[in-house]
Amino acid sequence: SSSSSSSSSSSSKDPRNPEKTVATSRNATVNARLSVTATSRNATVNARLSATSRNATVNARLSATSRNATVNARLSATSRNATVNARLSATATSRNATVNARLSATSRNVTVNARLSATSRNATVNARLSATSRNATVNARLSATSRNATVNARLSVTSRNATVNARLSATSRNATVNARLSATSRNATVNARLSATSRNATVNARLSVTSRNATVNARLSATSRNATVNARLSATSRNATVNARLSATSRNATVNARLSATSRNVTVNARLSAMSRNATVNARLSVTSRNATVNARLSVTSRNATVNARLSATSRNATVNARLSATSRNATVNARLSATSRNVTVNARLSATSRNATVNARLSATSRNATVNARLSATSTNATVNARLSVTSRNATVNARLSATSRNATVNARLSATSRNATVNARLSVTATSRNILCSVLMDKYSHKS
Questions:
Q1: In the chain, what are the domain boundaries?
Q2: How far apart are CA 306 and CA 291, in angstroms?
Q3: Where does the record place Low complexity bias (predicted)?
Q4: 353-378 burial, b if ≥16 CB within 10 A, otherwise e?
């Protein structure tokens, strides 16, 4: 107590020399008074005076000369003044997070905030500090605690760091921000999140690189016109609408085969057929096609009778029809296929199921096969056709049938060679001439016998 009174009296006696007094004073009021002059510009004195002060004005004054982190941390306790706090922050690189958080409350200074951010692990403080920062390193640091979308959008402006961007993406629902964040990401989970707002083809192409998620890929496909990207996106899709979209740029047989699995769209299937050399895929694509050019393409690999029957419906091409005929056992289909054929082997095959006189007449045009001709003769009532069919026949029953329409001596002479039937022979004899004496004699002989 005597020391305190002595201090007090001493200070009243010699106010211009506060340093002696300050040395022992622990009295805040006295020290506040002393500070008026001990802004004496003496940092050591001011530091000593700061020990008892809780007065913001006094502390602001005392801060002017201090470069001491501990003192400044103490002085910051009452300050709400941005200029003072900026000054105090210079040493409150003090590395004291609590002090820095306090100082950040009034700062709108980029340099100060960058300094203050170094120790902060407080999301609210960091959000505040981010308001002025355009520094990527600082922003990366500030992002560590933020769960605020607005703050993160701000921080993303300068970031080129994949880890930071992944963190920032967690709260973003902003397409522009997400596009920016996508630039460095190689993380499928992050990219899936970023894709939710994107309508930008370039961004989506980038995001597609890591995705193996069908829902995400469907979303990304909406803007893509890039064949490579679409091929990648097709890998997980089982959605017909998405696949139809993806097919627009594909010229890849493997991709098209995959896309065809869900398509029931004629236009899409026609496009997909352009590259396919796969019989199973082509069979699938043929289901909706009514296009002759497409069907001709699809027929190249087909060995399936049902598929070929379908494909034949639009074909007017002899080569295609010949191919399609290889598996057909259907009379209606074969009749259709016969319309363009001038091929002996094909026609012989087609004749196997035909019971149609018009079709058979057509098929007979190329046949030189007795068995085939015998079959074709069963429905014919046409003299010209029958004359043609008679050339290879050595069958009495067939020849008897063929004779019904013939008025041609040469043909009848040929037909008579196997006949043992009086009625047939009588018919055949009507045209026999002196050039066919043997035929006539034979006919007469059997005719009399009968």
A1: 289-342
A2: 17
A3: 1-12
A4: bbebeebbbbbbebbebeebbbbbbe
- Contact, 382 vs 359, CB < 8 A? no
Strand ranges inside 125-230, DSSP E: none
pTM of the model: 0.77
CB 346, CB 322: distance < 8 Å: yes
Residue 52 three-state SS:
coil
Count of CB atoms situated within 10 Å of the CB of 151 = 24
pLDDT values of the chain reduced to their tens digit, one per residue, 450 residues: 334 444 443 444 455 666 666 666 789 898 998 888 765 578 888 999 888 889 999 999 999 888 888 898 898 989 999 999 999 898 745 578 999 999 999 999 999 999 999 999 999 999 999 999 999 999 999 999 999 999 999 999 999 999 999 999 999 999 999 999 999 999 999 999 999 999 999 999 999 999 999 999 999 999 999 999 999 999 999 999 999 999 999 999 999 999 999 999 999 999 999 999 999 999 999 999 999 999 999 999 999 999 999 999 999 999 999 999 999 999 999 999 999 999 999 999 999 999 999 999 999 999 999 999 999 999 999 999 999 999 999 999 999 999 999 999 999 999 999 999 999 999 998 887 755 655 666 666 666 554
**Longest Cα separation, the chain:** 177
- Alpha carbons 414 and 295: distance in angstroms, whole number: 45
Contact (CB, 8 A) for 354 and 360: yes
Contacts of 377 (CB under 8 A, 6+ apart): 386, 389, 393, 398, 401, 402
Token pair 């309508």 is at which residue?
199
145, 161 Cβ separation under 8 angstroms = no
